[in-house]
C-alpha cells in the first residue's frame, strides 16, 4: 500500500509546535501501540504538517491515534493555528475534551468566553474560536452558554433547557440543519420535565433556535434575549435606528446589529410571501377533469411532443425558479403597477387629456420597453449612472427624450449577492464629440472622459496616471523615423515628456494645458521638425493647429467684442464676471490683490464720474486700472485671457489663491505677465517637493525667492507679523509706504534674538547660516537676507540636519552649485540625499566618505589609515571577506604604533576587497593619486599614515573608484555618484 502523498503548500510547523503535538499525543488513556506512536511522531517531524500526519495515521490503521490526531487538527484549525491555546484546552483536566463537541459543550469551563478568558489569550482569537464552534457545533455551544450562564435563565428553566439540549447533543441533533419540530416533538427529550413546564421550555428552545439563524456571533443571542427579542418578527417591529442604538448600548458593533436587523426583516418578508402564496392557492379555481375539452381533432397543435409550462410560456423559462420574478410584491411587479396607475390618471381631470403615463413616455419612452428580467430587477445601478445615461441620450439626439432602453445582461451569473454594477452603457461618442470640445464654464471644462476614466482606474489600483507616465517615460518614441538623425529632436522630445508629466501631476489635461499656456505638449519646434526641416511656422499658425481659442470663447462669449462690451461683457461684475468665473466677491477682491495682476485690475462704480460706491454689487464694474495715469479703462482681451488662465490653473491645482500667486510670480521672474510652460513645470516640481517633504506649499516657496509679503496668510505674515513678535520688535512691520524691511538700514545683530526665536534657531545655527553667505549678507536685515536664513533652516529641516551642518552639505556639491537655483534642481538634490539616507548614510558619513571629518569650526581634519580601510570596507557593503579590525590587528607592527607598511596595506586591501579593487585602493591610500574639491585634478608623491590637512576628500576617491570597478549592494544612486573617470595614473572627480 502506498503511503500518503506529501503536501508542499501547507504551512510548516515549527519545532515548538511539533513538540506540543507530540506531548498531546502521549495520552495514557489512548492505549495505542508505542510503534504506531513512534511512526506518527517521526512522520510529524518529517512533514511538519498535521494534515499529512492525519493521512499517515489513517494509512497505519490505528483508529484511536487517528481520532486523536483528527481532533487536534480540527481544534488547531478552529484556533487559527494557535497551538498554545490548543495545548491549554486539551490539557485541561477538569474537562479532558476528546472532540470538538466536548470543547463547545464545556466552553465556559475551559475559559473560552469573553467574561472569563485569561489575559494571556488574544481576545480576537477566542472570538474567532467561538464563532467557528458556533458553525460546526451550534447545539453544543448554545448548551455550553446556557450551562455557563452566558445565556441567563431562571434556575428551574435553566435545568430543564440543559436537559433537553444535552439530549439533543446525545442524539447528534444539529439545530442549524434539522427542523426544530424533530427535537420538540421527541417525548424522550421531555420525559424528565413536568408537564406544566414543558411549554415554557419549548418556547425558550424555539427562541434560541430562531435567533441563532440571525447572528454570526453566538454572544449576541444572549443580548437579544435580554431585550426580549424572541423571533425575527419582534426584531423587525423595531425601527432600524432604534434597534442599532439598543444593540450599541449592549456592546454589539453597528455592522453586526445591522446584519441582524436585515436578516430579521428578510425572514419576516419571506414568511409573509409564504402566507400569501398559501392564501392564493386556497382560493384558486380548479377545473374538474370531466369538464376539460376532449375533442382535439379540430386543433392543429403548434407544440410537438409533451406539453408543459415552459413550452406554453417560453418567457417564463428564465424565471420559474426565481421567487422575486414570481412574486406580486417584487420590484418588477411594483414597477408595472406604477405604470398602470399612472395610465389611469389624466393630467387635466376637467376635460379629456393625456395621462400621466403619456407624459412620462413623452420624456422617457425607453421605460415602456424595459425588460422585466432578473438582471434589471436585482442589479443595483448608482443614480449617477442612470442620470448620465439619460443626459447622454438627450445630448446625442438633441431632443429632451430618452428613446433607447438599456437592459442589463440577464444571464445565470446574476444572483442576490450582486449589488453593484458600474455603468455599462456609457455613450463615449457624446463625450468625444460634444463634451470634450467645450471650454466653458471654466470651472468644469475642458473635460476628457477617457483621461478621467484612466485616472479613476489607476486610483482604484493604488497608483496614478502620473506614475504611469513616469515609469514608462520614453521620449525616443516621439522621434519620427524620418527625423531620427536630427540631433535636436530627442532633446525636444524630452521637453514634450516633461510637459506631459508636469501637467498630469497638477491634474491638467492636454486641453487644460492649451487653455492656460496657449501651447501644446508638442512644442512649435517639434511640429516644425516633423513637418520638415525647412518648415518654420508662425506662432499664430501653431496656435491654430493645436486649437487655441479666443479669450471670448474661453469665457463663453461668441466673440471678443461682446466679452469686452460695457453693456453685456465681462466688466459687469455681478451679472457676468462672478457667475462666469465661479468665484465669490471676496475671492474676487483677493484675485485683484495678487502680484500676478500687480494692481492692473480694479472694481469701480458703474456710473462715470461718480466718486462713491452705492454699496450695490450690481452697480460695480471690473475694469483695467492704469497705475501711472491713476484712472480706469475698459478691460483688454489680454487681461481677460490672463484672468481665465489663472482661474483655471487655480481650480485645477487646488492651492490657496495666495500660494499659487506667490509661486507664479516667483517662477515668472522678469518675464512678461502670463503663464508659460516653464511656470507649469516649476509648479509641478514645487508640488512634488511639498509631497516629498510633507510641508505646505506656502512654507517652501521661499526656497527659491524672497518671502511673499503680499498676503496676510503668507509665511512672512504667519512668522513675523504675529502679535507676540510685534510686541517684542516692530522692525518686521510695514513702513508708511507699505514696504517691509526696506533699504537695508536695519541690522541683523540688533534684532538677532527675535530672529532666533521666531525661526527657532540657536546661536550656533544662526551663525552658521550667516557664515555660509557672509559675502553678500553681511549684517544687513532685508527681505532677501531674512528669506535666505529661513530658506537654509527649512532645507536643513527637510534633510533632518542642523543648520550648523549646512556647510557640510554644500561641500558635497560642486563649487558654485546653487541648490536653490530652480525647484527641479532642489528636488534632485533632496532625492539624492534621501536615497542615501534610506541606504543608511548620515550627513556625517557622507561628508567623511566624500572628503574627511569636519570639526566644530567647519575646518577639515585628516584621518589615519585605520579609518580609511574601515570606511572603505563599510562602503563595499556585503563584499568584505573579513572583519577589518581583525585583519589589521593580524598585520600590526608593534614597533611602529599606528602605522603600516605599504606591503601590509596591500595585503589588507586585497583581503577585504579582492585583488583588483584592493590594488586600486592601495594605490590611493599610499598617495599615488589625490583629488581635491571643485573638480580639480592633482597628482602627488606617496602619502604616509600621518594625517594630511591638504587632502580632504580621499574617501570620495575611494568611493568613486569602487563604483567604477564593482556595483555597490543596494546602492540605487550609483549613477549619481559615479563620476570618476580614469586618467592615466590619477582620477578626475
Automatic annotation (TrEMBL):
InterPro entries xrefs: Insecticidal_toxin/plasmid_vir
Annotated keywords: Virulence
One Pfam family of this chain: VRP1
This protein's name: Putative PA14 domain protein
Phylogenetic placement of the source organism: Eukaryota, Fungi, Dikarya, Ascomycota, Pezizomycotina
Amino acid at each position: 500500500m502506498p503511503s500518503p502523498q506529501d503536501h508542499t503548500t501547507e504551512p510548516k510547523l515549527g519545532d515548538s509546535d511539533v513538540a506540543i503535538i507530540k506531548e498531546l499525543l502521549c495520552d495514557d488513556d489512548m492505549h495505542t501501540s508505542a510503534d504506531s506512536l513512534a511512526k506518527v511522531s517521526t512522520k510529524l517531524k518529517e512533514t511538519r504538517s498535521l494534515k499529512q500526519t492525519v493521512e499517515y495515521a489513517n494509512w497505519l490503521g490505528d483508529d484511536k491515534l487517528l481520532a486523536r490526531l483528527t481532533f487536534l487538527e480540527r481544534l488547531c484549525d478552529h484556533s487559527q493555528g494557535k497551538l498554545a491555546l490548543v495545548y491549554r484546552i486539551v490539557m485541561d483536566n477538569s474537562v479532558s475534551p476528546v472532540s470538538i463537541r466536548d470543547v463547545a459543550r464545556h466552553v465556559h469551563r475551559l475559559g473560552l468566553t469573553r467574561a472569563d478568558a485569561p489575559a494571556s489569550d488574544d481576545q480576537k482569537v477566542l472570538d474567532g474560536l467561538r464563532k467557528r464552534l458556533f458553525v460546526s457545533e451550534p447545539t453544543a455551544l448554545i448548551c455550553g452558554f446556557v450551562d455557563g450562564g452566558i445565556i441567563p435563565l431562571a434556575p428551574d428553566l435553566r435545568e430543564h433547557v440543559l436537559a433537553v439540549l444535552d439530549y439533543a447533543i446525545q442524539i447528534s441533533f444539529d439545530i442549524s440543519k434539522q427542523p426544530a419540530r424533530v427535537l420538540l416533538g421527541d417525548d424522550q427529550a421531555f420525559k424528565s420535565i413536568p408537564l406544566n413546564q414543558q411549554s415554557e421550555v419549548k418556547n425558550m428552545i424555539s427562541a434560541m433556535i430562531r435567533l441563532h439563524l440571525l447572528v454570526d456571533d453566538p454572544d449576541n443571542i444572549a443580548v437579544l434575549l435580554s431585550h426580549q427579542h424572541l423571533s425575527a418578527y419582534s426584531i423587525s417591529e423595531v425601527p432600524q435606528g432604534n434597534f442599532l442604538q439598543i444593540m450599541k448600548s449592549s456592546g454589539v458593533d453597528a455592522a453586526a446589529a445591522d446584519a441582524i436587523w436585515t436578516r430579521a426583516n428578510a425572514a419576516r418578508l419571506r414568511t409573509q410571501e409564504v402566507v400569501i402564496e398559501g392564501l392564493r392557492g386556497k382560493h384558486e379555481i380548479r377545473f374538474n377533469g370531466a369538464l376539460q375539452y376532449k375533442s382535439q381533432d379540430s386543433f392543429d397543435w403548434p407544440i410537438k411532443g409533451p406539453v408543459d409550462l415552459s413550452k406554453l410560456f417560453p418567457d417564463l423559462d428564465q424565471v420559474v425558479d426565481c421567487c422575486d420574478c414570481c412574486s406580486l410584491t417584487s420590484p418588477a411587479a411594483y414597477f408595472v403597477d406604477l405604470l398602470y396607475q399612472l395610465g389611469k390618471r389624466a393630467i387635466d381631470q376637467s376635460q379629456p387629456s393625456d395621462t400621466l403615463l403619456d407624459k412620462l413616455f413623452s420624456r422617457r419612452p425607453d421605460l415602456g420597453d424595459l425588460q422585466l428580467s432578473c438582471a434589471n430587477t436585482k442589479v443595483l445601478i448608482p443614480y449617477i449612472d442612470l442620470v448620465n445615461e439619460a443626459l447622454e441620450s438627450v445630448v446625442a439626439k438633441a431632443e429632451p427624450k430618452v428613446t433607447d432602453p438599456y437592459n442589463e445582461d440577464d444571464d445565470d451569473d446574476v444572483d442576490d449577492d450582486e449589488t453593484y454594477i458600474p455603468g455599462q452603457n456609457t455613450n463615449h461618442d457624446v463625450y468625444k464629440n460634444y463634451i470634450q470640445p467645450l471650454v466653458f464654464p471654466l470651472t468644469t471644462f475642458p473635460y476628457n472622459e477617457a483621461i478621467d476614466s484612466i485616472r479613476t482606474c489607476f486610483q482604484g489600483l493604488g497608483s496614478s496616471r502620473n506614475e504611469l507616465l513616469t515609469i514608462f517615460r520614453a521620449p525616443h518614441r516621439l522621434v519620427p523615423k524620418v527625423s531620427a538623425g536630427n540631433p535636436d529632436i530627442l532633446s525636444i522630445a524630452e521637453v514634450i515628456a516633461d510637459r506631459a508629466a508636469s501637467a498630469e501631476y497638477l491634474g491638467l489635461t492636454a486641453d487644460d494645458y492649451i487653455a492656460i499656456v496657449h501651447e501644446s505638449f508638442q512644442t512649435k519646434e517639434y511640429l516644425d521638425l516633423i513637418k520638415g526641416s525647412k518648415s518654420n511656422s508662425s506662432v499664430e499658425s501653431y496656435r491654430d493647429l493645436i486649437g487655441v481659442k479666443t479669450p471670448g470663447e474661453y469665457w463663453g462669449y461668441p466673440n471678443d467684442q461682446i466679452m469686452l462690451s460695457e453693456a453685456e461683457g465681462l466688466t459687469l461684475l455681478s451679472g457676468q464676471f462672478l457667475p462666469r468665473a465661479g468665484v465669490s466677491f471676496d475671492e474676487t477682491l483677493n484675485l485683484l490683490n495678487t502680484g500676478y495682476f500687480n494692481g492692473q485690475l480694479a472694481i469701480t462704480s458703474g456710473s462715470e464720474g461718480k466718486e462713491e460706491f452705492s454699496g450695490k454689487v450690481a452697480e460695480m464694474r471690473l475694469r483695467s486700472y492704469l497705475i501711472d495715469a491713476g484712472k480706469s479703462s475698459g478691460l483688454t482681451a489680454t487681461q481677460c485671457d490672463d484672468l481665465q488662465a489663472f482661474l483655471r490653473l487655480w481650480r485645477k491645482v487646488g492651492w490657496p489663491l495666495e500660494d499659487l500667486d506667490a509661486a507664479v510670480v516667483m517662477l515668472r521672474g522678469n518675464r512678461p505677465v502670463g503663464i508659460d510652460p516653464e511656470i507649469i513645470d516649476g509648479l509641478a516640481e514645487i508640488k512634488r517637493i511639498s509631497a516629498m517633504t510633507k510641508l505646505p506649499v506656502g512654507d517652501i516657496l521661499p526656497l527659491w525667492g524672497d518671502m511673499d509679503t503680499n498676503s496676510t496668510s503668507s509665511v512672512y505674515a504667519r512668522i513675523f507679523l504675529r502679535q507676540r513678535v510685534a510686541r517684542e520688535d516692530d522692525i518686521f512691520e510695514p513702513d508708511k509706504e507699505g514696504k517691509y524691511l526696506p533699504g537695508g538700514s536695519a541690522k541683523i545683530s540688533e534684532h538677532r534674538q527675535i530672529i532666533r526665536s521666531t525661526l527657532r534657531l540657536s546661536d550656533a545655527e544662526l551663525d552658521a547660516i550667516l557664515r555660509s553667505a557672509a559675502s553678500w549678507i553681511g549684517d544687513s536685515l532685508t527681505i532677501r537676507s531674512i528669506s535666505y536664513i529661513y530658506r537654509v533652516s527649512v532645507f536643513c529641516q527637510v534633510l533632518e540636519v542642523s543648520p550648523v551642518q549646512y556647510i557640510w552639505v554644500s561641500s558635497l556639491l560642486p563649487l558654485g552649485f546653487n541648490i536653490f537655483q530652480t525647484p527641479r534642481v532642489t528636488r534632485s538634490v533632496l532625492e539624492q540625499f534621501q536615497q542615501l539616507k534610506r541606504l543608511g548614510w548620515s550627513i556625517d558619513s557622507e561628508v567623511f566618505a566624500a572628503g574627511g571629518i569636519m570639526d566644530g569650526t567647519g575646518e577639515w581634519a585628516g584621518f589615519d589609515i585605520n579609518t580609511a580601510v574601515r570606511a572603505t570596507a563599510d562602503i563595499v557593503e556585503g563584499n568584505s571577506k573579513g572583519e577589518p579590525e581583525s585583519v589589521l590587528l593580524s598585520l600590526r607592527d608593534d614597533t611602529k604604533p599606528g602605522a603600516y607598511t605599504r606591503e601590509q596595506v596591500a595585503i589588507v586591501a586585497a583581503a577585504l576587497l579582492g585583488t583588483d579593487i584592493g590594488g586600486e585602493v592601495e594605490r590611493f591610500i599610499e598617495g599615488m593619486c589625490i583629488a581635491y574639491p571643485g573638480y580639480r585634478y592633482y597628482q602627488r608623491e606617496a602619502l604616509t599614515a600621518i594625517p594630511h590637512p591638504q587632502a580632504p576628500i580621499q574617501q570620495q576617491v575611494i568611493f568613486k573608484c569602487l563604483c567604477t570597478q564593482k556595483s555597490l549592494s543596494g546602492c540605487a544612486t550609483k549613477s549619481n555618484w559615479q563620476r570618476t573617470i580614469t586618467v592615466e595614473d590619477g582620477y578626475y572627480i
